Amino acid sequence: MSNHQIKAEKKPKIEIVKSKSFLMRPIPLYFFLILLLPIILLFYSFHQPKRNKPYDATEINQMADNNDCSVIIRQKDTGLIKPLLFVESYRNEESYKPLKLKIDNYLKQKSQDGSISTASVYMNDLTTANHFEINPQELYDPASLIKVSLMIVYLKEAETNPSTLKKKIFFSSKYDEDYAATIKDVTISVGKQYSVSELLYHMIVYSDNEAFWLLIDNSDASAITKLNESFGIPINTDKIHNRKIAPNFVANANSISRFFRVLYSATYLNREMSQYALSLLTQSKYKEGLLKGVEKNIRVAHKFAEREEGGVIQLHEFGIVYLPNNPYLIGVMTKGKDKAQLSVVISDISKIAYDELKSK
Length: 360
Known about the structure:
The structure is a single chain. Helices cover 36% and strands 18% of the residues. By secondary structure, the chain is α+β, with helices and mostly antiparallel strands. It has one domain (88-358): DD-peptidase/beta-lactamase superfamily (Beta-lactamase). Helix 4 runs antiparallel to helix 5 (196-205) and helix 8 (253-265) packs across helix 9 (271-282).
């Protein structure tokens, strides 16, 4: 070996250039904003009130707590138009919360003392369409409230055929009723002829069941069902009592309110026929419910209904109260064991509502 020291071979120095990864680079703020924008828009679209969409009674009740929603219900039509039936606002305005709370507290008290087993209330400010409901999901037998829908059926036919109201119908014999009316005034007489307009008067003003069945027998058997469908009212039936004949039609307060709302707005019948119907309703002889809660000079277009089955009494009343500058629709549907107590509940709720709205 050489005496010369052998120098170790130097390896070439490799300079490692550290390139910054895309993920490790600082991300500008605007990039986050761009990513968040579609998420914000998606969230906003899901929480926007869905307007101009028809709902049936069940869907409406499910949306009752939406703070900013207006529901427009139109007639089903395959043509170029969809006639308006009514509009309902679901805005829970602060000014209506005290009234709802008063009525709700009153009903809780009456439930505790046994005056009622259950009750529902529908209130609609007819000037603004704002409304509220208490116990909206409860179903009731509408009983004589169906007479309002039958009146609408006949008046709709009279729009195109004016002779309908003059048509004479012979009353040959009394009807065998499943439910006997206990609240009676005047009834039609066997062996006499009556015009349709006379029968409508007896059916609405005196709540005459004989006039009702005579009109039913001389109309399309499915007419009321078709009317309910056109108003978006679900056809619920009583599954509890299993009646041997056709099962009872049952409905919530919102559904029944629709008959009164279309009359007030003249959106189903024309103005003449709507006026005709409401005029009959203002002449109703029943004075033990809503009328006791308002001053005597206030006009009310109203209809009551009663039903008793299996020891359960139902008493209901709906009415348009023509309070100057603030007309409103109120409906109270009740169940209990004592009809007198139920009528007191209806009149008390009527007074609570009237006093509150009059003060405004």
